[in-house]
Automatic annotation (TrEMBL), chain A:
Record keywords: Membrane, Transmembrane, Transmembrane helix
Protein name (Swiss-Prot/TrEMBL): ABC transporter permease
Originating organism: Nocardioides aestuarii
Highest taxon listed in the record's lineage: Bacteria
Keyword set includes S-adenosyl-L-methionine: no
Listed transmembrane segments: 43-65, 71-95, 116-145, 165-184, 191-211, 241-263
UniProtKB/TrEMBL annotation, chain B:
Family, per entry: Belongs to the ABC transporter superfamily.
InterPro entries named in the record: AAA+_ATPase, ABC_transporter-like_ATP-bd, ABC_transporter-like_CS, P-loop_NTPase
Annotated SUPFAM superfamilies: P-loop containing nucleoside triphosphate hydrolases (SSF52540)
Keyword ATP-binding: yes
Stated name of the protein: ABC transporter ATP-binding protein
Entries under PANTHER family matching the protein: ABC TRANSPORTER, ATP-BINDING PROTEIN
Pfam families: ABC_tran (PF00005)
A molecular-function term among this protein's GO annotations: ATP binding
Listed Gene3D superfamilies: P-loop containing nucleotide triphosphate hydrolases
Amino acid sequence: MSTLTATSPAPVVRRERQAHAPIPATRVLAVELRKMFDTRSGFWLVMSIGILALLATGATIAFAPEEAQTYGNFAAAIGFPMAVVLPMVAILSVTSEWSQRSGLTTFTLVPSRGRVIAAKAVGAIGIGVVSMLLALGIGALGNIVGTAISGAPTTWDVSVAEFSSIVLATVLGMVVGFTLGVVLRSSAAAIVGYFVYSLLLPTAFGMLAAFQDWFRDLQPWVDFQYNQTMLYDRVPDAENWAQLGVSALPWLALPLAVGLVMLHRSEVK
Amino acid sequence: MITADHLTKSYRGVTAVDDVSFTARPGRVTGFLGPNGAGKSTTMRILVGLTPPTSGSAEVLGGRYADLPNPGREVGVLLDASAQHAGRTGREILTVAARTMGLRSERVEEMLARVSLTGKEADRRVRGYSLGMRQRLGIATALLGDPDVLILDEPANGLDPAGIRWMRDLLREYADQGGTVLLSSHLLHEIEVVADDLVVIGNGRIVAQGTKAELLAGAGTVCAAADTRALASALSGAGITSKVSGSGALHADAEAAEVGRVAHAAGVPLTELRAADGAGLEEMFLQLTAESQRDRIHEGAAA
């Protein structure tokens, strides 16, 4: 037990307060990008994009018949695993702050939640675009090597417009994941939500369109997932663009807006 | 300098923080004391903008925390040592914080040394850290930006006695250099040895605050005599309430000089006379927070 001595106010040594420059947005972005790679799960998630691309290319060379060894098929084989993995990167970039509670540090160091979330969005989409370019490169390599092995003519059947449309489809998938992350702020819930969106929903809407005539014409205007996956197959025309934009309102714009307001007001604990 | 001004936080009818106002001054360690669930952590989260208050306002260094251009350089915060991504290494967590604040990377190594985490430990993932190691890492994160203000929630949790001693010295030194330190604890002894000022909270309300000296002065006097009963009746005759407090001594609600005078006048020779120390403060703490205590005090004693 300590004996108490009367504490007179200690002589205060004045600390000179320095003026500090605001944290630039580029720094927030660099930090958020780093955080997508620096955990074991994050590292392997991003690594798996490259690994799956190589495996898919190898499988196409090994198993696809000669006439199917076209650039389009190589790109599709690589694009599919990416369409699954990349939205996970987007989801976890947001939800891990809550599920792992690292947000306590993140949002005390950068109190503006909007800046942090914007940096995460830019970073995740950046990873998406770079990954797609990587897929383009690995696919091209696969196409050259594959056809060289089989002796089939090397076919370049993907135009710039088609590739851009595929990149957009993938990025939109990431935006859906990101939105689920913002709205649910829980890794498990958002990942389940994403699979409901990408696997269950198309079946449900497909059935509805098959059996209900009134829905068949309506579907392109209300089913965002329908429009998003269509981008993998063809370059949209003017009407497709309009349908994509209209269906994005209830599926993306509205939930994202509501989610961001909720996130801004929520308690980080 | 930290100022809480009539902070209130309600959750659907439950008031977690109820009209809390206090000031933590530079050059002093302010202890934020209260039982578990009293509202300490919620108050601290409000101070740094993680929890929006229902009403009231808080200022850190003369403005809103959220308006600080680079908060980590001015306010060091440790709210929960376990709130870290389990898949990051200790060094990576410090590096991420240092990058955010715009500090050079050598600062990370300096802080690891400062909190006695070895290079090998720093390269392990936080998943495998003990609570004590997490606390050291959390303190390192708080100190990283060389801030003017420290806000630490239960920083001694999980530290071994040597670690607690180390942290106490660190906070003392920090305040002596002109820093403002606000630290919370539900353990009185932990706070008592380091704090200059105390803010005691129970059930979301502040139940006592002031300098430690002031609060101790109000804690009364411990006195003893061979004839305890004679001493007690002499005191009550003089209008001083007293009660038996362990080992036959009396705890009187008066200054030591007053008690001595009464005993002398009554001709009762004293065997002990001193200002109630921590024991008195503890009694005060238990009394003040009795309503919000989960266990009734006598039940706690029986257990």
